[in-house]
Design a protein that fits this description.
Blueprint: E1 2-4, H1 5-8, E2 30-31, H2 32-38, H3 40-46, H4 50-61, H5 71-76, H6 79-93, H7 100-107, H8 112-123, H9 135-151, H10 171-180, H11 184-199, E3 206-208, E4 211-212, E5 218-219, E6 221-222, E7 225-227, E8 230-234, H12 243-256, E9 270-275, E10 280-285, H13 286-292, H14 298-309
Parallel strand pairs: 1-10, 2-5, 8-9
Antiparallel strand pairs: 3-7, 4-6, 7-8, 9-10
Helix pairs in contact: 2-3, 6-9, 6-11, 7-8, 9-10, 12-14
Length: 318
């Protein structure tokens, strides 16, 4: 189900006097989403009518089909791994190579288990187009999702290799390993989420993982993908829409408008938050999102975000 933010949230009058207050404390360098936990007042100030807008959005989303987490996901706290597998699946289903880059990073590690995992991914040849009814494909997406936090330094590699790797390497032995690495309930959950994703996908050529340069304490952050003229952020959350999701895509838009940005990204004027568990994608122009949350037009907000994060970060925070 594709939902337009303007049709769900009654337009809220933008405040007459609006500004982002200066941070109350020193901010440590971090990726954009981690910064929000350091400066929660930023989200409230950016979107002054967020409580009302979020309530209206989630009231509409409650009518959508819900895909709950499996028992294994709850028991083993695999919410992030499932979400990242779906994220990789979105790109795989769009025809993108999701194996080459992780394989190059794995080869830079020196320990034996890492080398073995790299060899498994090297001999395994997934089909060119995604078929998420195959358990080996789901296993591949799950492994790639588990590797993402490793490459970002948030998780040790030992968390990824949870079962014995094949001793004799071939495409078939690698395929069999991938087929059994994911618990059946988790595998079925990922398949359901991918089917939901297909039904709520936005049209257009998919540009994967757009990287937005840093600003002040923001370490460069990457979005999920751009489809046509829409920046899409995927959230496999059980709790529906959250204010931080909206803040995130608005800040990505502001970072894309930095005058000295080095990465040339496709232009986008729409923002979408994709919620596969709710079988819905909420989309709208940047100004429609801002209006729905009580913020002024985008030119004012972009300048305010640029000024807010143009900070001198203390040396100790580096």
């Amino acid at each position: 189900m594709l939902l337009q933010v303007r049709d769900i949230v009654k337009t809220i009058e933008s405040p007459g006097a609006w500004s982002l207050p200066a941070p109350r404390r020193d901010i440590r360098r971090a990726c954009l989403t981690d910064l929000f936990s350091q400066i929660p007042e930023f989200c409230r100030a950016l979107l002054p009518s967020s409580r009302s807008a979020i309530t209206q959005l989630n009231r509409a989303l409650k009518s959508a089909v819900s895909i709950p987490p499996s028992e294994e996901t709850r028991r083993m706290s695999l919410y992030s791994s499932v979400g990242l597998a779906v994220d990789r699946g979105a790109l795989f289903l769009s025809g993108h190579d999701v194996v080459s880059a992780p394989l190059r990073l794995l080869k830079a590690y020196r320990n034996n288990s890492t080398k073995r995992l790299a060899q498994v991914l090297e001999v395994y040849k997934p089909p060119e187009r995604g078929d998420f009814n195959r358990r080996d494909i789901i296993g591949l997406l799950y492994v790639l999702g588990r590797l993402e936090p490793v490459f970002r330094g948030f998780r040790p590699l030992s968390d990824v290799v949870t079962t014995q790797l094949p001793t004799r390497l071939s495409h078939r032995s690698a395929q069999q390993w991938l087929e059994r690495i994911v618990a059946p309930g988790v595998s079925d959950e990922i398949v359901q989420l991918l089917r939901s994703l297909q039904s709520i996908s936005l049209p257009g050529i998919v540009y994967p993982n757009p990287v937005f340069g840093g600003l002040g304490p923001i370490i460069g952050s990457d979005g999920d993908w751009i489809a046509g003229d829409t920046l899409v952020e995927l959230k496999c959350t059980v709790s529906g829409m959250q204010r931080e999701f909206v803040t995130q895509v608005i800040c990505y838009f502001a970072l894309s408008r930095l005058p000295d940005r080095q990465n040339q990204l496709p232009n986008f004027s729409n923002l979408a938050i994709c919620l596969p568990r709710q079988s819905a994608t909420v989309t709208g122009t940047v100004d429609e999102w801002l209006s729905a949350f009580g913020a002024p037009q985008s030119s004012i907000v972009v300048n305010a975000i640029h000024q807010y994060f143009s900070l001198d970060v203390p040396a100790a925070a580096h």
